[in-house]
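Mods, move this if it's the wrong board.
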Amino acid sequence: MTEAQKIERALAEHYPDEKCGLEAGEDPFKLLVMAILSAQCTDKRINEISPALFARFPDARSIAESEPGELEKYIYSVGLYNSKARSIRACCATLVEKFGGKVPSDMDALLTLGGVGRKVANLIRGDVFGLGGIVADTHCIRISNRLGLAHSTDPKKVEFELDPLIARENQSAFCHRLVVFGRDICTARSPKCETCFLREKSLCKGEPK
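Not the wrong board. Structure tokens:
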């Protein structure tokens, strides 16, 4: 078993039921919009505003055809709401015009949508379509570097370094577990190394970076 597989197994044993923090149910459209909104905002806040948001805007067409300024009223509390509203409108317009209002599964197609980069695209591909994908967010980047699984702070480079190390069918769960691990133990500042289960298993030997 490789070092990466040992780390993946230890995370799975410690966080057996972990899943995406965005409560979108199994709705691809909701997860897509919520993922765009989540930039520099907590999952908790996105989950709080989502019921009212999707009651008014249940699909891509409803946003694409909405009046200017209306969407902003529902998302103003998430931060950067003007730029996020522009991205979401552009995203929904493309969904309606090119994809019949449906969220595509293809990476290249997802990247044509406003507000969607590789991180969001991999989240959608993994959580919605079961295609896997490394979601290289701040937790993933920080922790994978500390563990020696990656050697870059560039999200795309980290994604490509981790991709061959973690089985495709396990990648989504692996990334979700890294988020919780990064919040609970392997924090950006003052990580709790003395209580880290990976260190206890000799799976993390280095000093925090």
